[in-house]
Amino acid sequence: GKNDRTAARHQRCLVRETAESLKADMTFMDYMVSAITLGIQDSGNPYTLSMILCFLTFLALIGDTPRHIALAGKFTASTVFLLTFFLTWGENALWLERPAVNRIIHFFSLGVAAFLLTIGYLLFQHWRLDKTRSAKQWLPLFLREGMETAEKKVGIIFFSVILGVATVLIVSLWPRNQNIYIFYYFFSTSGNVLLATLFFVLYSLAFTLLVAAVWGMIFYLRHCAKLRNDFLNVISLARISNSAIFIAVGMGLIYLFIAT
């Protein structure tokens, strides 16, 4: 209605005025710090956490060798970085805001929630059986000693790219920090392509930081026998803790689906 148009016009004026003030108030280092800060802030939300758990599950299924873990991490993180950069540059993310597309992604998040709840239930079952010692328990491949499966390079690359795309799409459901739009408006009017490119590269790298950190942690765990053995000593606690995390995040996604 009229009030919505007035509010939108006021918001555009506010963005324009704020962007104009950037020209006088910010140094080169301010831009770089802002890019990193915004990237970290925009990646810190329940949707990102849900996809991190999916990434961990993926590594648990394919991480029998450091080579496979490296391959999965490189292609997942690279896909998240490149797609984030593409969507933040220009108006490429606008199609994600279309009602039909947004609704499809929302239903996809419900599928992720069901997956996380299933994994959480399976972890709980493994923890319960571990208490009775009634069966040999399944372990993530990156915790198994000398465990190598057949070469599966193409499959790992394919599913890593799919996971990276899914991560960016799911995380798009969480509202971005409004300052990213102010910076976009500033760069689009200033014509400083080099500064804009560097800003959005740093933003995308910071946005990918959590995925890269988890990848590095699992890669180091696979390499370090002592750390792996220490982790196996508390595997029962790890199972019940991870079960609670998976179930809590899955329930959180269901709540967000209903609430939005």
Please explain how this structure is put together.
- With 260 residues, the protein is mostly helical.
- It has helices at residues 2-25, 28-43, 46-62, 66-88, 99-132, 153-171, 179-190, 193-207, 209-223, 225-233, 235-259.
- Helix 4 runs parallel beside helix 6 and helix 4 runs antiparallel to helix 9.
- The longest helix is centred in the middle third of the chain and has 34 residues, at 99-132.
- The two termini are 21 Å apart.
Descriptive labels:
260 residues, mainly alpha, 11 helices
Summarize the structure.
It is built from eleven helices and no strands. It is an all-alpha fold and 260 residues long.
Q: How is this fold's topology laid out?
A:
Elements: H1 2-25, H2 28-43, H3 46-62, H4 66-88, H5 99-132, H6 153-171, H7 179-190, H8 193-207, H9 209-223, H10 225-233, H11 235-259
How far apart are the first and last residues' alpha carbons, in Å?
A: 21 Å
Strand-residue fraction?
A: under 5%
Task: Please trace the helix and strand order, writing H or E for each element.
Answer: HHHHHHHHHHH
Report mean pLDDT, rounded to a whole number. 83
Number of distinct beta strands: 0
Q: If helices are DSSP runs of H or I spanning 4 or more residues, what is the number of helices? A: 11
Helix content: over 70%
The shape, in one word, is globular
Give the structural class.
Answer: mainly alpha
Largest sheet: none
Low-confidence stretches: 1-15
Determine Rg (CA atoms, Å): 21 Å
